[in-house]
Amino acid sequence: DAAAQKVTLANGTSFDYDKLFLGTGRSAFIPLLPGTQAAGVFSFFDFDDVTAILAYIKQHNIQQATIVGAGLSGLECA
Questions:
Q1: pTM value?
Q2: Strands 6-8 and 14-16, bridge-based pairing
Q3: pLDDT of 38-56, one tens digit each?
């Protein structure tokens, strides 16, 4: 309840707040489909992922890529 600045859990417990941060977490989801475990398939979430992607691009002279995912991370990667 943003107007009352109160969060109520599924078990009915309530907490008042002055400021609220919703950290929903993240996880890489690469579906288990043919080809998804091949070289050149990456997740994109942290600096290590970016470093691996850029190294692969440079090493293999990649000119085109396909980005799957319409979330903010996918848009940022594009």
A1: 0.59
A2: antiparallel
A3: 899 888 878 888 899 999 9
